[in-house]
Amino acid sequence: MNSSKSPVLDGLGNTTCSAHNKISVFFSIIFMTVGILSNSLAIAILMKAYQRFRQKSKASFLLFASGLVVTDLFGHLINGTIAVFVYASDKDWIRFNQSNILCSVFGICMVFFGLCPLFLGSVMAVERCIGVTKPIFHSTKMTSKHVKMILTTVCLFAVFIALLPILSFRAYQIQASRTWCFYKTEHIEDWEDRFYLLLFSCLGLLALAVSFLCNAVTGITLLRVKFKSQQRQGRSHHFEMIIQLLAIMCVSCICWSPFLVTMANIGINADRSMETCETILVVLRMATWNQILDPWVYILLRKAVLKTLYKIARRCCGMHIMNLHMWELSSIKNSLKVAAISESPVSSKQINQQPLSSTGQ
């Protein structure tokens, strides 16, 4: 480093952490390849399922899930390619980033592909909550056109957040490890540097909180309907989707919470923060695992796989847990029937008074 370096590269000479380039390039390529293959497989599975359920209540959920997996796929392609290029170039930002264009693109992609999956996960949780608690409204209002509009709005909002520093003439900064670009996390000067970090963290944590709340309401509603109506029809696809949503929420919380909390801590405490370069690099790598694990939720937690796991568990436990009729797929007609039962106390009383022979049929 010498005095002729660009202002945007200021501070790189004080790098406090680094990784072996050959090992980092190798693992970056492996992670990118695994992520691309996993997301491609998940997209194929979701598209096949969407063709089967195009006219049913599950179609909107599958569209949102497809949007999430496609976002993860492009995140691997773009961010992974830039990361491999940086490692392959020996992290010599002075040579290939004199105008700070690459760092700006990298920073924008990091923010967009970080927030967009979190937003989509929360939107999916809200959609499923409405589908379970208000199925009539969901079936009449949540059309594929509306789903595509919501997807577009979410993506545009994430793009707007990612472009905010550029629009306010604040450049993205090369981080201390010299392997990625993000908001300014060192030598924070004013409230605007803090604002971007806190905005990113608060939006991410809010998305996780919304997912948790909606999934809790959905799960409680399904259990309440089950015990109230004592009918098995019309809920198998709801249970399948809520299991997938819970898995996505757990993966997102585990992968993203450390990074979001770390960025919030830096935004609040600024230079008084005790976060080290090594800590930031570890939580960043945890966050990148989210895009690898997300597609496996749809690959592994499908109805066919869940039925197989259930049979294995039932065989190992040697006890009757639930009837396999619960896994039978149902149409929107059966979903509306369950909703009518749950919302009508008169209907539920009549069902509870039916002879045992009729309920067992």
UniProtKB/TrEMBL annotation:
<dbReference type="InterPro" id="IPR000141">
    <property type="entry name" value="PglndnF_rcpt"/>
</dbReference>
<dbReference type="GO" id="GO:0007204">
    <property type="term" value="P:positive regulation of cytosolic calcium ion concentration"/>
</dbReference>
<dbReference type="Pfam" id="PF00001">
    <property type="entry name" value="7tm_1"/>
</dbReference>
<dbReference type="GO" id="GO:0033993">
    <property type="term" value="P:response to lipid"/>
</dbReference>
<protein>
    <recommendedName>
        <fullName>Prostaglandin F2-alpha receptor</fullName>
    </recommendedName>
</protein>
<dbReference type="GO" id="GO:0007189">
    <property type="term" value="P:adenylate cyclase-activating G protein-coupled receptor signaling pathway"/>
</dbReference>
<dbReference type="InterPro" id="IPR008365">
    <property type="entry name" value="Prostanoid_rcpt"/>
</dbReference>
<keyword id="KW-0325">Glycoprotein</keyword>
<dbReference type="GO" id="GO:0004958">
    <property type="term" value="F:prostaglandin F receptor activity"/>
</dbReference>
<feature type="transmembrane region" description="Helical">
    <location>
        <begin position="99"/>
        <end position="126"/>
    </location>
</feature>
<keyword id="KW-0807">Transducer</keyword>
<feature type="transmembrane region" description="Helical">
    <location>
        <begin position="147"/>
        <end position="167"/>
    </location>
</feature>
<keyword id="KW-0675">Receptor</keyword>
<keyword id="KW-1015">Disulfide bond</keyword>
<dbReference type="GO" id="GO:0005886">
    <property type="term" value="C:plasma membrane"/>
</dbReference>
<keyword id="KW-0297">G-protein coupled receptor</keyword>
<dbReference type="InterPro" id="IPR017452">
    <property type="entry name" value="GPCR_Rhodpsn_7TM"/>
</dbReference>
<dbReference type="GO" id="GO:0006954">
    <property type="term" value="P:inflammatory response"/>
</dbReference>
<dbReference type="InterPro" id="IPR000276">
    <property type="entry name" value="GPCR_Rhodpsn"/>
</dbReference>
<feature type="transmembrane region" description="Helical">
    <location>
        <begin position="59"/>
        <end position="87"/>
    </location>
</feature>
<keyword id="KW-1133">Transmembrane helix</keyword>
<keyword id="KW-0812">Transmembrane</keyword>
<feature type="transmembrane region" description="Helical">
    <location>
        <begin position="23"/>
        <end position="47"/>
    </location>
</feature>
<feature type="transmembrane region" description="Helical">
    <location>
        <begin position="195"/>
        <end position="223"/>
    </location>
</feature>
<keyword id="KW-1003">Cell membrane</keyword>
<keyword id="KW-0472">Membrane</keyword>
<feature type="domain" description="G-protein coupled receptors family 1 profile">
    <location>
        <begin position="38"/>
        <end position="298"/>
    </location>
</feature>
<feature type="transmembrane region" description="Helical">
    <location>
        <begin position="243"/>
        <end position="268"/>
    </location>
</feature>
